[in-house]
Write a structure and sequence with these properties.
By secondary structure, the chain is of the alpha+beta class. It has one domain: 3-Layer(aba) Sandwich (Trna Endonuclease, Chain: A, domain 1). 43% of the residues lie in helices and 16% in strands. It has 4 helices and 4 strands. A 4-stranded mixed sheet has the order 1-2-3-4. The protein is globular. It starts with a helix and ends with a helix.
Length: 116
């Protein structure tokens, strides 16, 4: 998923170059994908790409993973990134159905959640 306009604009206003804004989030996306593909058996996942406009609903988490009998929803954020209003709405709807949308900023957070 592309960075929200608010998130991208706030980072740019702080002097962060455009390519660094996307790179910071991609630095988390690609290790998650790698982790899923290298697992035995491979972990099925749905990924909302960052290099193209989203084709699924606004606010949808970046990743849906299906691991060890559980479904995990992850929203990846840069260190300074914030959740957009559409993402907040999606998170509330998921929580109403007893699912948690995990907002993560590091691979360590990702691994702690799926291995807990």
């Amino acid at each position: 998923m592309m960075l929200s306009r608010l998130e991208g604009n706030s980072l740019r206003a702080a002097g962060v170059p455009d390519d660094a804004v996307e790179d910071e989030v991609n630095d988390l996306h690609y290790p998650i994908i790698d982790f899923c593909k290298k697992a035995i058996p491979e972990i099925p996942y749905i990924w909302s790409r960052t290099d193209k406009a989203a084709t699924i609903g606004k606010g949808t988490p970046d990743f849906s993973l299906f691991y060890k009998g559980k479904a995990y929803l992850f929203e990846c954020k840069s260190k300074r990134g914030t959740v957009s209003p559409d993402q907040v709405v999606w998170k509330i709807k998921a929580e109403a159905q007893q699912f948690t949308v995990h907002v993560i900023r590091s691979m360590r957070e990702f691994l702690e959640i799926i291995e807990s």
